[in-house]
Model the fold of this input.
Amino acid sequence: MKKIYLLLSLCILFLSLYANSQNQRIVKIGAFNYYPAIFLDNDNVVKGFFVDAFKEIEKQENIKFEYIYGSWNENLERIKKGEIDLITSAAITPERQLFMDYCQTSALTVWGELYVPLESEIDGITQLEGKKIAIMKSDYNAIYFMNLIIKFGIKSIFVEVSSFEEVFKAISSKEVDAGVVNCTYGLAKSKEFNIRSTAIVFNPFDIYFATTKGKNAELLKIVDKYLNNWKHQENSVYNEARVKWTHGKTNIVWIFPKWLSISFYTLIFMSLIAFLFVFILRKQVKKATKVILEREKVLKESEAKFRSYIDSSPEGVFLTDENGKYLEVNKAASKITGYTENELLDLSIYDLVNPEKADKDATIFSELKVKGQVFAEFQYIHKNGTNRWWALVGVKLSEKRFLGFTRDITERKITENELIKLSRAIQQSPVSIIITDLNGIIEYVNPKTCELTQYSEDELIGSNPSILKSGKLDNEVYKNLWETISSGNEWFGEFQNKKKNGELFWEVASISSIYNKNGERTKYLAIKTDITEKKAFIQELEIAKTKAEASDRLKTEFMNNISHEIRTPLNGILGFAQLIADSETSDSDKLKYIEVLENSSNRLVNTITNYIDISSIVSGNMTINKDTFDIIQLLQEIYNENIKNTLSKQINFNLKQINNKNKIYIFSDKILLKKAINHLIDNSIKFTKQGYIEFGININNLDIEIFVNDSGIGISPNKINKIISPFEQGDSYGKRNYEGSGLGLSITNGIIKELDGYLIID
Done:
């Protein structure tokens, strides 16, 4: 009776255990070699302080944890596919958030460290140039460190291995120069491998327990609950386990006596195996079938939901393989590129890039493979053949799958380019540009404004334009200006302003309002042109005119010449001005008339300038300012100023240099001498239809001879004295074949005499 009672008791106990086992949840945990948190010990049992913590959860929650051991990268693939329920030590990254959900409470705070052999001299990041560095595949620290090396412009060779242990083995065996591991593993294992940590410590971050996306939310809540309690209790199971595995002994294992264990299990299985085998098998099959069907249903629902999100996205979504071939695309991708979805699936990313930039664009895909994510803007070719721009966000899902989100930014790029052109035009403008707020406070000045006023940009911005006031203009001018622009009208006028050094200058200005898209006035814009030289020229012209009128000797010659050299360009100016003003004149004709108008104006200005010069010479009022200067440099300047005119007439124009003479200094009036030489060259250009013109200097003892030779029509000896007289040319007056006042050689002769030289014509 006692034997029967014992057998029945054991049966009841087993049935009770079986009933509990049927309700007990099996949770598969991905384990990898991350000593001392979790690792496979020499007895092929997964151990570590994570495992001790999970044992406590097993006792409290009726959960059974099973450990699936492999490399870190293998466990990442398993969690993606849903082959395991939980993975440890996962950093949060945008890529991983696509396929994993994380606990809210972190398991550990860790960082990356670079380890080297004990005798290595590597202690700084700059010493890694050309070095081989071991990293664990798909390790967050490794990816961060590779990006860090690239940012520093350091070229290193990275060797991927499957675990931290293999990283340390490679360092210890000198297969690599250094290796990157997590600080937790490195602290526990560096002495064992006879290696050391360097001063290169980087990327502190939290690691978490995580599950497959959209699954095991209840499991995460359970783990979060225990982690949160443990981390706030000094003597919790979790904290004691960390101390034990980090500092204590791990080789003591308590077991039942072998004979008792064998006897107990043999008795149970021999008694009940026949009775329960069929029942257990049926229950397990039914349960497994139900789980599979539920998983398939959830998977289909998730896939359908995800597909609806992708299809309704306004951004183009592309899924490619490792070669860039499109595997999946959404409707927006088809709309952006112009291709149908089926057409895109026959193409790769390289079929849509500009062939001229294919190599450059290929580096973006290569960068995505290394970094895991990229942000880029580049051109693509629309189906209609046009070049357009798109912005890309690329994410690496796996070694063979890459996800891209794109949107067309062509219009934005066009706007940016227009803004760049406008900005450059303003920055490089030869006129001053100032922008103020509605109170007249300067907000922007272009470089020309600073150059002209001698104030820096910092000195002008924030100031009032009154900083440039000279005090020479009546306040009514400024009052009128302000009333005009405040009423929304444009103001035109002239200012006499003052530079930072006190020098006065003249400007002609146009000031108007700037409006926003709602028609509201927001700023004032001033465009100003320096007319100081023009004002001075007008003043000089008036003085020259006064002197010319006072000179009785020039009056007759001037009147004889004026009908041809002043009336002709004036008639051209007046006549063509009327044609330009005529509304029936076409735009193309107006451009031609403007060119004639400009040529006539230049001819008139040159004629008046010559009259002033000859007037100064004849009246004896020419001012001489002598100084020491380099004659070689002066001749080079003259050459550069005249080369364009000779090229337009297809004349060979040469500056004859003196051998071994880079500089020759003389004491004279540089400006007048330059003017005299230019008149000689102008004369040669005018009377040389083809051939050559050459000029330069000869040195005879202390004398310097400046010469101009040409292949022109030449001058008859009996006319030499005549043409150096004012208003004369080689042809008689009224029958001249060449335009001009006839003053060129007269002015040259007068200047040379004033400079104590003489003119020779042969």
User: Anything to note?
Assistant: Confidence is low (pLDDT under 50) at residues 1-20, 249-261, 730-735. DSSP finds 24 helices and 26 strands in the chain. The chain has five domains: 10-254, 313-414, 429-530, 536-617, 621-754.
